[in-house]
Amino acid sequence: MAVLTSKNALVTGSTSGIGLAIARAFAAEGANVTINGFGDADAIEKERASIEADFGVKCRYSGANMMNGEEVTAMVKDAEAAFGSLDVLVNNAGIQFVSPIDEFPDDKWEAIIRINLIASFYAIKAVLPGMKQRKWGRIISTSSAHALVASPFKSAYVSAKHGVTGLTKTVALEVARDGITANAIAPGYVWTPLVEKQIPDTMKARNMTEEQVKNDVLLAAQPTKEFVTVDEVAAIAVFLCTDSAKQITGTTLSVDGGWTAE
C-alpha cells in the first residue's frame, strides 16, 4: 500500500517548481491533492489533469491569493470539505525581493512577510481542528537555508523564513500529543526553471561562462557545488508523512549541500 493512500493533501504554491514536485510525489503515494498558485490557466489545468491521469487520484485547484488571510482560510476549508478530510498541509508558497533595507519598498516587504509567513499561520490555524479531531496530521513548511543563516539585501525573506522556523517549533509543541507533526524543509539553491532562466542574463552581466555562473555565483555558498533538485525536496516531504517519521517534529531539515555547516 502506498504511504498516503486514503489521505488528502493541500500544497500551496504548487503550480510549478518545488510545490508541484511535492504535489506529484504525494499523488504517487496515493493522496488526493489540492494544488494552488498563479499562472496560465491552461497550463495549470494541464498539470491538474496530469496528476489525476498519472496517479489515479483526485486533484483540485484553488486560486486562493496567499496575500489574503480570508482566502487562505477558505481554501483550507474548501479542500477539507471536498475530500472529507485534510491530512497533510504543505506551506510552500513564497516570493523573493532583493534590496538594501534602507531602500526596501514597503509593499515588497509586506508581501514577502504575508506570503512566506502569515499565510502559513492562517493555513495552520484552519487545518488544525480537523487534524486534532482525527488524531493525525502532517504540517510541512518549505523554508530555506535563510531560515538558519542570513544574506545581505534579503531582509524580508530572511525574516520571514526565520519566522517559519519559530512557527514550526511552536505548532509542534502545541500538538505534540495529538498525532500531528510540524516540520520545515530548508533547501539551499534548488534547480528550477526560474533559476535556469537567470543564467543567461547573469552570464552577460558578469561576463562569465555558464559553469562560472553556476559554481561561483549561484552555488557559491553550497560546498557540494550541486543544486538541490525538486524531487529531492519532495522525497523528504513524503518521508515526513510516514510512520517512520512520527517522532520527527518541531525541526527544520536542511537540504543545502552543506551551506549551513560552514
Automatic annotation (TrEMBL):
PROSITE patterns: ADH_SHORT
Source taxon at top rank: Bacteria
Cross-referenced InterPro entries: 3-OHbutyrate_DH (IPR011294), NAD(P)-bd_dom_sf (IPR036291), Sc_DH/Rdtase_CS (IPR020904), SDR (IPR050259), SDR_fam (IPR002347)
Gene3D superfamilies: NAD(P)-binding Rossmann-like Domain
Family: Belongs to the short-chain dehydrogenases/reductases (SDR) family.
Protein name, UniProt field: 3-hydroxybutyrate dehydrogenase
Naturally occurring in which organism (per UniProt): Labrys miyagiensis
